[in-house]
Amino acid sequence: MIKAADHIGVCVYDMDKLIPFYQDILGLxxxxxxxxxxxxxxxxxxxxxxxxxxxxxxxxxxxxxxxLQDRGHKIYPQTGxxxxxxxxxxxxxEVDDVDGFYEKVKAAGCETLSAPCTSEDxxxxxxxxxxxxxxxxxxxQLRGGK
Length: 146
Description:
Elements: E1 7-11, H1 15-25, E2 29-37, H2 39-45, E3 51-58, E4 64-70, E5 90-94, H3 98-107, E6 117-118, E7 124-130, E8 136-142
Parallel strand pairs: 1-4, 5-8
Antiparallel strand pairs: 2-3, 3-4, 6-7, 7-8
């Protein structure tokens, strides 16, 4: 039986560009920044010469985001992440002022898919922004609870 969701892990191309987005723009707390190599990592990854930089962020309610940069192998940056397609789609964060966050990410030069929009039933207002790795991040403000 599963006890709880623990974290989501995302491989990244350039950790130094990613950190300011999640720490300074979104305001997540960085809880760890370390390197990992060795037999254990090689075994669980099924490869040799693994060399990771791992940075962990935690959301206000305690969910962890683990970003992993593989420095031991040639990797390529993600070149796109459309909303229409199979695979990982996006992270979603509830915010208290979606319009304020929109202005903040635009001022930081981040790409958005649209300005904030309100759902037909008025229950939420949201927009999508791309992080420096092209991952889509949904920022939403709920109106009247979930």
